[in-house]
Design brief:
This is PIGH acetylglucosaminyltransferase. Pfam families: PIG-H. One of its GO terms (cellular component) is glycosylphosphatidylinositol-N-acetylglucosaminyltransferase (GPI-GnT) complex. Helices cover 36% and strands 40% of the residues. The chain is of the alpha+beta class and 129 residues long. It has one domain. The mean pLDDT is 88.
Length: 129
């Protein structure tokens, strides 16, 4: 009977590990910004599964670095602010990026600057036509 309980515990642990690797453990996160199309956010899990989110550029109001206090320390993360369709000055949603990898502030600043360059090009492009 003890061996049956031990076998069940091992089996449940293995199932839990497989679920963790397939749905929770993110191995890599990437961000692709194309000014004329939109922003693609891809998360690769440890199991090899990939999850992709695409945000049309027309929905993007801005990209910002936000800060939060977590466990007595300040953490920084990149966010996409989505424009409210009913109120062009408003924000309908905040989409946080790189939640698993938690890059350092200096890395976030580099990504932020690149995103802002692309957003600025997008804002000035329709005016020059």
């Amino acid at each position: 009977q003890n061996s049956m309980v031990l076998s069940a515990a091992i089996f449940i642990t293995l199932i839990g590990l497989i679920i963790y690797l397939h749905f929770v453990k993110i191995d890599q996160e990437s961000l692709l910004v194309i000014g004329s199309l939109g922003i693609q956010v891809t998360s690769s899990y440890a199991s090899g599964k990939e999850s992709t989110i695409f945000i049309e550029m027309g929905q993007v109001k801005d990209v910002v670095i936000n800060e939060a206090i977590h466990m007595q320390k300040v953490i920084y993360y990149l966010c996409i602010l989505l424009q409210d369709p009913e109120n062009p000055q408003g924000i309908s949603e905040v989409v946080p990026l790189f939640q698993s990898s938690k890059p350092r502030l200096d890395c976030l600043i580099e990504v932020y600057k690149s995103c802002q360059e692309i957003l600025e090009q997008r804002k000035t492009a329709p005016q020059s036509n």
